[in-house]
Fold each of these.
Amino acid sequence: MSPFDVNDFLPTEAARYERRITQLQSRGFYTTSIEDTVNAASENVASRDVRSFVIYGEPQSGKTEMMIALTARLLDEGAKIIVVLMNDSVQLLEQNLERFLRSGLDPAPKKFNEILDPSIDPKIGTWVIFAKKNAADLGKLIDKLGRTKARTVIDDEADYATPNSKINQHEKTRINELVGRLLGRDGTYIGVTATPARLDLNNTFENENEHWVDFPTHPLYTGQETFFPTTAKGLKLPFKLELLPDQGDAPRYLRAALFHFLISVAHLNTQVNEAAENYSMLVHTSGKKVDHSKDYKQIMTLLGALKDRQHPRYANYLEAVHALAETRFPGSEKEITQYVVDHINQSDVVVMNSNAQRNASLYERATSPAALFTIAIGGNIVSRGVTFENLLSMFFTRDVKHKIQQDTYIQRARMFGTRGGYLKYFELHIPKHLYLDWQKCFVFHQLALSFIRAGKGSPIWLEDARIAAVAGASIDKAAVALDSGEMSWEMFPYEREIDAIAGEDGDPSARLAALAELVGDDALPDHVLAFIAQFNFGPASIAIHRTTTLGSDYGTPQERTEIRRRKGFIATNALEKDRFPEAIHHIKVFRNEAGRARVFYKYTPEAGSIRFLKNLKSHGK
């Protein structure tokens, strides 16, 4: 028998991150996006000493798997306490905690209340702790962690609840204050979100937007370009889009959407799938529980009629199912209708709101459909962080009559994700105006992020009369510059070539590019050119006006020197509507007699002007 020596049993060097990547690859996961993101985040923390930054990626693009790998890497590199913050939802916390646990992470993650026992000392060992963004929970966790140092906070859905919406009142919201206390003086904040505008414009924990990390999508991802292609590309969609009237919510629209869902499931399980699969339909209502109840009753009535041959509407509804099946899948209508008749009892309708929020099994039934025909009904609670497996249909019951926020509606794209296997059978039923606004949300969002991805510095966030970038209260007004209506930028030396460009005929896009190259980015920024290109409806939509010289009789001496005046330069008559009747993008150079010039831009669509928001504050070291 060999002698025992405790020194023979030293812990082996941790390799959590490599193990996790190997596990994912063995299961066929595409890991390049995860590896690139984790490497960049690790470089921020280990090499650049960046203490607050954001990782941004598309909705439902696999951010949870990335966070597991990131946690493993941070532990390998010496992190002792990592707190993963989730929205104030028991189901979301449980769902994500289970995924972290099943990954085999070392140490095994714990819910915050599992470490509150006085016998547990968080200063000993390493910890991965899950907590909701809930004031009571965070307060208890902060008390327990006491004087521990160098905590790392990974904030999932970071733009929700964490930013300080009282920033212009020189106060802090409760969650913002508590997360700040959790970080302490030497903590590291890593916000993870699909919609980072609020974190940027709010200067949340002075995150350094020049060190933000992009989490690219994987090859099987279906997202904006699939469901909301840009205006320039038109609406050549690989799924079924059913545009509803902008006003009213007649029951027939929900009935048609439900019947379409039933026949699509029937077709997939009789003609496509080797074995039957369960699918879900999401009915997205307003945030009012009374609307959830109304839609629930309507769906239950429809399903009840299809289950009861004695019901007075049974024959009419079954005939409607048959007619839709004949239109959508001609030749298979009889088999599909029979499948619906035989399996309609395998339906499950789940209301997802705060009344049901603590029922984990109910939540799981909806997100991972336990019944063949699963219908989930919800509003705000299903709009963020919830992944619906085998989601086959989405129905939006009502248009919004007020200004919508980009972050809210981008997060509502629950159909994004890995939908390729059944994408052509997916259906989106939505009011037309809401779809177009939603599409514009994504255009504005992607234009903003493109500047970071291209290495052009801080993002420029866009909004218009219908679409707000973020909630106004969250914008740090002391640090954010806003261009709206008529815009102008830096002055530059006037050159005669400008007159030649303005006076030429030919493609205005090419002439605009020539003008931009001549005057430079400071005088005509790239983000404006990108916006014009995105909303280019043909040559007639762009007007490049002739140069105007400000003579000695024009305005005040200061206005002529600075080429600025409060009421602007491009008045209605300067738009030259007789010459450019269809133009919505107006570009005009004004020069003074001292040889200086400035470019002015005005956007004049029927919907109103555009606004560009940029955070001018730098937190870099």
Amino acid sequence: MSSKLTTRAVRADKRTIELNLSVPATAPQVLKGGHPAPVPPRAEAPSARLWQPLAVLTDTVALGVSFALGDLLRQPLGSVEGPRLVPSLMRELPFLPMFLAALAIYGLYLRDQRRLRSSSFVDIGPRGHALALGAIATLATSAFLHRVAGWPKIGWTEVVFMSAPAVVLLPLGRGLVAVARRRHGANRSRVLIVGSGAVASSLAQRLGRCADVELLGFVDDSPLLLPRGQSALGRRLGGIEDLPRLCADNGVDRVLVAFSQSSPTWVVEMLRKLPSTVRISVVPRMFELVTWQSQIEEVHGLTVMDIAPPRLGPVSRATKRAMDVGVSAVALTLLSPLLLAIAVAVRYTSPGPVFFRQERVGYKGRAFRIVKFRTMAVGADDLKIDLRAHANDVDGPLFKLHDDPRVTRVGKFLRATSLDEIPQLLNVLVGHMSLIGPRPFVPDESAGIDGWAARRYDVRPGMTGLWQISGRNDLPFEELRQLDYAYVASWSLWWDLKILWQTPGSVLRRQGAY
């Protein structure tokens, strides 16, 4: 059923915009009386209100352990004695608050509250700077106290050993706390989306893949327009003027603004009425061009965003290639026993070769043969045409089945755990692929990639990439194209390291792996 939205005038920034839309309208779920169905009450978690004190306590313990480990490592092997260790700790622990102060200066007790999703990786840089600042402050204060009061002086060697283990222990401690909070539901953010169109729907789909986000619904003056079959994404809870009340009544943590059809002036006015405890995030206009490499600057109070150019320079390419060669060579050496075990399992559980080789389209559109462990029965490609004609679980030119009859018993496990991909390290080593990049398609699937999306061929295809950590085969084809473009447009060594950091978690969750 569809309903026609009549032409109406919307006043925005002293201009009148005429809207004449004919689109299917999805009515919000309502109770008698015309009011939206109530949102379930928030389950209070004691640790939710104690996050900052808990983070400080966790960091204090991690720093104390770091100091002790540093003392142990600094002593000659086999000569560590309790009486020697205790005096060292007693001399160092008074300087621990300086490291905590440095962490606070770099905002490491506020960053998680400002982010939609917490991430320990993006804090690696600020955390390293904070530890360096704490070490310098310790050296300076120790030298001053030694001169004034005769306190034992701490030198460069000692302060380096004190702080070095904290590089690992601080994120490890925070991670353990995050796991504990997740089990108690304390780190789930309650979110409202302001908007009702295609962008709001796409945002809701992505939030649905985030276990730490609870999407309550949509707020807009227009009817909720969800794609067919996606009514489970949420419901319209009210109009723009209801936003402050809905946030207060439902314990909302964050509001995401995604292109409401209401007047921007009206939306901004309601957003300004929200309490400071409700965070606000905005999907930028022309978000298809904006990437994480884009930079924000100010021109006499007006915010201007620079769009990062979608290209990799010679230095960037050389750096990326050096990392590919080094990591793939080391990984192949360390994983050789696992490779042998998988090869034996594949060979003796189904007839056929151990490895599967297939033509894929790579850098600059050149074809190469990818190497994987065989996960399907011999002759699987011959059955692809018949299967594709009757069933396909993904959109666009791609072809995937959740329960593919061609997959072997061992192959199903290898695909779910991505172990079948390990031989691609050989492709990385010889230069056909990279560790991180767009996924390589077979030629008939690559035929559907053109225009701006063809920039994916400006880099080598990857074993992992944004597509894998974002949902893999569960992603719509259009979103996959945008992720590939965003990766090329925003490449940096830091982003590659972040994707590598998040890949093991994505593999363990097995989301979209089939």
